[in-house]
Amino acid sequence: CYTKDSVDYPKIAAETCEKVQGGQAERALLICGTGIGISIAANKMRGIRCAVCSEEYSARLTRKHNDSNVLAMGARTLGSELSKSILEVWMNTPFDGDEKTVRRVEQINALD
What we know:
By secondary structure, the chain is mainly alpha-helical.
């Protein structure tokens, strides 16, 4: 959203995740007050693996082990410098892609 006006985060999650689903974006960032509500909405969408992260360690592991394609963060729970650091780690961490992690991501996708 581009204003300080209140918006319904499920709509923002859907509009953003549709771009990932349609191939217009490889990954996406979603932000709401805590990151929780918008991540719940995002994870309702087929093929979306959204993780809420509040520190770099989880951001790294959700990319390496879960091939997360959407990151959610909380605007009211994180400072701007920590948010930037989490996003940088998440964007720069590749998926392991080993047999175990691929199998598990396929199992997650089968739940759609």
